[in-house]
């Protein structure tokens, strides 16, 4: 619960300097800006990135180009952004896995998520949902836990790869409840969901944006959400805490970064313009439909939150013995 309280304290504080004054003072931007999204087109990250690009274009009357650089769990795009030292014309869409989890799994990572990036603002938080194949004999979490304990080593869960949110969510559940379950990593979430529907795996703790379409057509059973409070888009689905799993509070998050070394005045300007133009009723409604909550912040608040997440996931990865694919 402490983490959620931290979020509540920091995400609603934002620098709101007038954009026109900031632009006049810095002369930025005077050419197109590139936003690197480290995941393929069409997914949640791409959707968020394009909304950010549209918001900044509106603020600046300048082109913001989304460049999808997928690969290695987001590390390909992150490395490209990290190499653009002091270049404010390169921005980066970071996420929980890319900015806080990967570094504890991939020891040969060629960038530092703290030293090589300038935090700009938190963008969006999103719950995950425990979804199970229809054949699993459980209609709530306690029934699911009893089934898992009665079948040690037999229940399997899918993920988009080692260190992804689906994997770390599964590890956290297994650790808190002392369960013996098999992790099956895939090259992306689409094949994992296909195998869930086909019964090759039993469950996934998946982000709401991907799980919701399957839940709506009753292809899977939604047992619980992973956040401290219920999700507005799934009001009848309880939280894991409500169902007796204490200490589970996990959510996906996305945030905007620039490379390290950009001018402080430009960092302040990007933050102010983003907060003003991204934090709108239209964007809030757009992302609420997929379970997301727009949560902009100051650069300092994002840096503090990221530091907390790095420590938290270091402990989870170590205890679970997560290794690279």
Short description:
By secondary structure, the chain is an alpha/beta fold. It is built from twelve helices and ten strands. It is globular, with a radius of gyration of 20 Å.
Question: What can you tell me about this protein's structure?
Answer:
This protein is an alpha/beta fold and 325 residues long. The protein folds into two domains: 2-126 and 252-320, D-Maltodextrin-Binding Protein, domain 2, CATH 3.40.190.150; 127-225, D-Maltodextrin-Binding Protein, domain 2 (3-Layer(aba) Sandwich), CATH 3.40.190.10. The protein has helices at 2-10, 19-26, 44-60, 75-82, 96-101, 141-150, 165-177, 189-198, 208-216, 264-278, 281-288, 299-320; strands spanning 33-37, 64-68, 90-95, 117-133, 156-159, 182-185, 203-207, 220-225, 251-259, 293-294. The strands form two sheets. Strands 1, 2, 3, 4, 7, 8, 9 and 10 form an eight-stranded mixed β-sheet that branches. Helix 7 links the parallel strand 5 and strand 6. Helix 2 (19-26) runs antiparallel to helix 10, helix 3 (44-60) crosses helix 10 (264-278) and helix 7 (165-177) packs across helix 12 (299-320). The protein is globular. Mean pLDDT is 89; it is low at 12-20.
């Amino acid at each position: 619960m402490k983490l959620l309280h931290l979020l509540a304290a920091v995400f609603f504080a934002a620098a709101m300097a007038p954009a026109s004054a900031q632009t006049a003072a810095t002369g930025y931007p005077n050419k197109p800006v590139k936003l690197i999204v480290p995941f393929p087109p069409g997914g949640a990250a791409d959707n968020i990135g394009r909304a950010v690009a549209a918001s900044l274009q509106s603020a600046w009357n300048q082109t913001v180009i989304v460049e999808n650089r997928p690969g290695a769990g987001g590390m390909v795009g992150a490395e490209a952004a990290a190499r653009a030292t002091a270049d404010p014309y390169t921005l980066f869409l970071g996420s929980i896995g890319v900015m806080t989890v990967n570094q504890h799994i991939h020891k040969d990572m060629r960038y530092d998520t703290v030293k090589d990036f300038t935090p700009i603002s938190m963008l969006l938080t999103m719950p995950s949902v425990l979804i199970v194949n229809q054949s699993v004999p459980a209609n709530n979490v306690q029934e699911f836990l009893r089934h898992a304990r009665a079948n040690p080593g037999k229940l399997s869960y899918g993920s988009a790869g080692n260190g992804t949110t689906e994997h770390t969510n599964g590890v956290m559940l297994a650790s808190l409840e002392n369960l013996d379950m098999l992790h099956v990593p895939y090259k992306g979430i689409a094949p994992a969901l296909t195998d869930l529907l086909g019964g090759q795996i039993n469950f996934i703790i998946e982000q709401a944006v991907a799980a919701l379409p399957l839940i709506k057509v009753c292809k899977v059973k939604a047992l619980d959400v992973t956040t401290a409070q219920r999700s507005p888009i799934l009001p009848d689905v309880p939280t894991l805490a409500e169902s007796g799993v204490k200490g589970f509070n996990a959510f996906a998050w996305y945030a905007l970064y620039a490379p390290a070394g950009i001018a402080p005045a430009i960092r302040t300007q990007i933050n102010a313009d983003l907060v003003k133009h991204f934090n709108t009723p239209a964007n809030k409604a757009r992302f609420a439909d997929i379970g997301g909550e727009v949560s902009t912040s100051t650069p300092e608040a994002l840096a503090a939150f990221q530091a907390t997440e790095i420590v938290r996931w270091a402990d989870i990865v170590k205890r679970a013995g997560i290794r690279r694919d």
